[in-house]
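**User:**
My hope is that you can spare some time for a protein that puzzles me. This is the protein in question:
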Amino acid sequence: MSKRSGKLAEVKSLALSQEDQVVVALDVHKRSVYAALRRNGREECTWVMPMRVESVVAALQPFAGALKKVVYEAGPTGYGLARAFQQAGLPISVIAPGKTPQPANPGSKSDRLDCRQLAEYAEKGLLKPVAIPTQQEEDDRQMVRLRSQLTDKQRRVKQQIKSLLLQQGVPEPEGLDHWTQAGMNALKALRLRRAIRYALDTLVTELELLMALRKQTEQGIERLVAQKRHRRDHEILRSHPGVGPISASAFALEVYQPERFERSEELASYVGLAPRVRQSGQTRREGPLIKAGREKLRALLIEASWRWIRDDARARRVYRRLVCNTGSGKKAIVAMARRMAVNLWCMLLRQEVYRRAA
């Protein structure tokens, strides 16, 4: 059969045998799914179907006997489709988009072309799959991500308040450096023109609401990690110097299934603490961090590392040595954060608490 674009009914009529090697790639969007099917090293057909999980799974069920691999790239549609494939017993892999090979001279781009190319890469084994979280794991880590989102919104509103005061030539009241309650009360007491007063009150009300929501979310995280399935891991992580309840919760919930990482380099890349390396011959250069991984978790680990070197004399000596070697305090603290991440990962794998050096 020559390669063609067909309707789903025509695709289901394909005659496949158990000896066939079939790979299907999907380009998943909010309303549609483009699919490309390859058989025995040749592209057979492509088609498009509505994005309904049950319908997509049912469309591939006729190929179950010959189907060797189904792939799609991780994206905003989440992992619901992948879990449905797993329940149906179909071989599914979710691919890391940043690890997909990129042609040196990319040509035209469309959803149909993307799924065709993805199918070819999948057949050749060139794609890097990511772990598919369970529904429970995805629900749990959403709590940590919600806290990060609320923190970002809080920061933006604080910037808006300060920008408004600067624009109107109003000196900032005391207490805004740390946004204390006294500082908030001082904002409410400022004598301003009616329109400016209304704008400032609106921003202050929004900030107070975000603060309350973040506090409620943190309480929800505390209740979550106190549950039996998380309690032991949380206690282990908290035993590491510098690691507080938020850092421990974020690491435990974001680094789910820690056994999936085979090497410390993989863990460092996942949490966003892998440097960009350029090596040729005898020359090796390490550049800035690769723009990948969990940015918020990286920030929490760096913050925890400052507490670590403050509370642990051995860590402080290591940090000072790194400062001397790199000539940069920023590079040194990132290196300490990477060490902390690897320590936490090893502690989870071994189910052992932190052991201080003698």
